[in-house]
Amino acid sequence: MWSYAAKRILLALPTLFVVSLVVFVLLRLVPGDPAELLLGDLADPASVAALRARLGLDLPWPAQYLAWLKSLASGDLGTSISTGEPVLTAMLDRLGVTAQVVLVSFTLAMLIAVPAGLLAAHRQDSLLDLSVVVGVVLCLSVPSFWVGLMLILLFGVELGWLPTVGWVSPLEDLGEGLRYLALPALALLLVEMGQVARMTRASTIEVLRLDYILHARAKGLPESRVLWRHAFPNAVAPTVTVAGMLLGSLLGGAAVIETVFTLPGLGRLLVDAIYQRDYPVVQGTLLLVATVQVLMNLLVDLVYPLLDPRVRL
């Protein structure tokens, strides 16, 4: 198992290298000079050139990229152009906000969507199944930013129950933190539920048609035991794959929700850095998101054989 994990990690290194190269090149193809944005439109060319030289932006692209890789090798992600703050410190300060929103919404989505998909497959073509399918279609069709805006309008503006902007961590003040966490987590929850419920339903329908399920029913086992003891372990494996990929992508995809609710999270940091052409922050944040995605895929690959013994064979 450990050798397999080590091989997968080594295979992930070329992926991260390609991601870093693509991010580096695309950033510099975007119109806008960080030095000009910092100094303003009235800055004279000499001041802009001096600032570019101080930031290392006057070097050729290959030299800039090699310098960035050298700093990465030493664990230094660079310094923010706009704030002067170390990139690693800025990301770690904001990662906690994103992690709390993502983990809460992901946990609730799994607790709701997996049983819903399982029961919908068990009662295929019934009213319950139709309701779940319609709910899945709605969750997958509605953009997350629109859901967030509607939640703000309903619970924040019309009813006045929950705050719509700002952030208080539940780790600091549980009651107030949950009020600030509710709307962002709910907006992400609806998007996640659709994907998880759809995969759970599809994989369970396939498993329920297998011969060993028919044999279990022929033995006179209760339907609840057939569903949860025999069908669920084999049907959950594809769901775990989708859940792992979803959890990894949510770290970067939370930028929309964090922008709507003005949360000081990693996604908001990335959006602000893009507007400011803050190359080190954008490069470091996207590299972190890619690393998390690779690690989640690795974790899914390691868990999958435990759920489905056929993979080990």
- Provide the structure class: mainly alpha
Shape, per Cα inertia axes: globular
Name the beta content range. under 5%
> Assembly type of the shown chains?
single chain
Amount of helix: over 70%
- The run of helices and strands is HHHHHHHHHHHHHH
Number of strands: 0
Low-confidence stretches: none
Word description of this protein:
With 313 residues, the protein is mainly alpha-helical. It is 79% helix and 0% strand. The chain has helices at residues 2-29, 34-39, 45-55, 61-73, 87-122, 127-141, 144-158, 174-208, 211-218, 223-253, 255-260, 266-275, 279-307, 309-312. α5 (87-122) runs antiparallel to α6, α8 (174-208) crosses α10 (223-253) and α9 (211-218) packs antiparallel against α10 (223-253). It is globular. The mean pLDDT is 82.
List the helices and strands and how they pair.
Elements: H1 2-29, H2 34-39, H3 45-55, H4 61-73, H5 87-122, H6 127-141, H7 144-158, H8 174-208, H9 211-218, H10 223-253, H11 255-260, H12 266-275, H13 279-307, H14 309-312
